[in-house]
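Q: Got a minute? One more chain.
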Amino acid sequence: MKKQFSVLMSLVLSLVMVLSMAVPGHAAGITPFIPDLDLPAQSFTQTVNGVTVHVDAPEGALLAGTEMRLTPVDTATVQAAVDNAGSVSGTVVAAVDISFYLNGEALEPNEAVAVTMASSAIAAVSNPVVVHIDANADQVSADSGVERVSAGNVQGGVSFSGKKFSVYAVISGEETTDRITYHFLDGNGNPYSFLNRAGQTVTTQIIKNGESLQEIPAPGLIDNQAFNGWYYYNQDTDTWGDLVEFGKTITVTETKDVYIKAHYGNVIYVTFWQYAAGKVVLERRQLAVNENTGKASMVMSSVTVPAPKTTLKFMGWSLVQGTDNSEENGDTPDSRPLLGNGSVDFTEDTNVYPVYYIGRWIVFVSAGTGMGADYVESYFLEAGSSTAEAARPADPTMAGYAFDGWYTVPDPDY
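A: Always. Here it is, folded:
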């Protein structure tokens, strides 16, 4: 139990008064002896579990030599206490036991001290509320007393003052406007757990007007079906809504509960082969089938493979298998049709093979290394093309110089 410093001081003064009454001559005006207590202004700063606490104690609040100790607190237990309190509501984003010790013994300040709590989690809350838990770190329970503390916002945290110290917590605050509580369900309809921005395990997101949903990890396979995405879901009618768009601003006009469920469907596998002849698998993509169209799609340019020779350029993927000669001498544009590098639809498991075109690279050297000129990308000319067919790049710029043109003979100044 922490001792109240003011009580200790009262005991000292009472003892002095008793002694003074026994001193002969006191009635004649002899001044009694009062111990000289050293109570300087002091400041303390410590960090625990990402929460930084700074305390400014005025003169007369704490004895010289006092130290501050911070003890981490289980936020789940504090959350249970907050939920049971009824006087406040919100999600606990930070909690810490703040204590003061002198010569190994806990004590309380004789006067109120100024406290600042700051962390990235607190900074992310738009309306933080500070509460005091009437228990030390190892004593907190769901039945612990919770008292709201008058506090203000500061850069990255909150500030308040107090004389009684044990556990202090910052919660997300009471909402005075409408909000939507989004409940996330897994493929079987059970609450789906994930970490919120404060690093806590939750199954819901509470959104006010103008906010957006935080994207959460996708669950794994279920019954050999692939995860298609998070969709709005009506529990009463067992029907699906639209695909959820994470990060999109939401307009909230009423307080309500909304359910979001993991959607699964059939899959198609697209196998990308390392070599045109199909000898080594480079990558295999699992694509979810759209139930409405029966198709699965992907952007083909998301998978590439380096050209085996400098005289070749990787052009994309083909449904037609090539030969060993494809890596040696390249393909002609008409030999194996390209699927294109944009979005391609698939209706069944599919193999695709790399296509290389033979040609020459035109390398544009805009200036010497480190001279500050614009970088100009190289250009690939397919076999049978002439240099005249190369697309002229934009003229590069360099401070203090005027661009004069492109030459095939190197500039001796470079």
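A: Residues 5-21 form the longest helix (17 residues).
Q: Perfect, thanks.
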